[in-house]
Amino acid sequence: MTKNRISISPDICNGRPVITGTRITVQTILEFLGAGDTIEDVLEEYPTLTAEDIYACIQHASKLMANRYEVQELV
């Protein structure tokens, strides 16, 4: 589901992940949800989106968090 709904292009929104066919970033959607807005609130704000688009943003973020990160000290 996420693969077709989220796209990344260096020419769109400075290469940030967006909902395909829009200039709405995954980050924007996650910020709405993180602020306490419901999926219905987001869809009201962006009527061209679908609930599946919102779920794709959440799945995209979840996949990023599944990566292993290592903190390195800068010298």
Explain what you see.
With 75 residues, the protein is mostly helical. The protein has a single domain, classed as Winged helix-like DNA-binding domain superfamily/Winged helix DNA-binding domain (Arc Repressor Mutant, subunit A, Orthogonal Bundle), CATH 1.10.10. 47% of the residues lie in helices and 5% in strands. It is built from four helices and two strands; from the N terminus they run H-E-E-H-H-H. Strands 1-2 form a two-stranded antiparallel ribbon. The longest helix is centred in the C-terminal third of the chain and has 15 residues, at 51-65. It is globular.
Give me the secondary-structure topology.
Blueprint: H1 2-5, E1 6-7, E2 18-19, H2 26-34, H3 39-45, H4 51-65
Antiparallel strand pairs: 1-2
Helix fraction? Answer: 40-55%
- C-alpha-based Rg, rounded: 14 Å
Looking at the overall shape, the CATH architecture is Orthogonal Bundle
Sheet of most strands: 2 strands, antiparallel
Q: Could you tell me the mean pLDDT?
A: 94
Number of helices: 4
Report the end-to-end length measured between terminal Cα atoms.
42 Å
The number of distinct β-strands equals 2
Structural class: mainly alpha
CATH class: Mainly Alpha
Q: Give the spatial strand order of the biggest sheet.
A: 1-2
CATH superfamily: Winged helix-like DNA-binding domain superfamily/Winged helix DNA-binding domain
Instruction: Please state roughly what percent of the residues sit in beta strands, choosing from under 5%, 5-15%, 15-25%, 25-35%, 35-45% or over 45%.
Output: 5-15%
CATH topology type? Arc Repressor Mutant, subunit A
Indicate the low-confidence ranges by residue numbers: none
How many structurally independent domains?
1
Shape: globular
What is the helix/strand order? HEEHHH
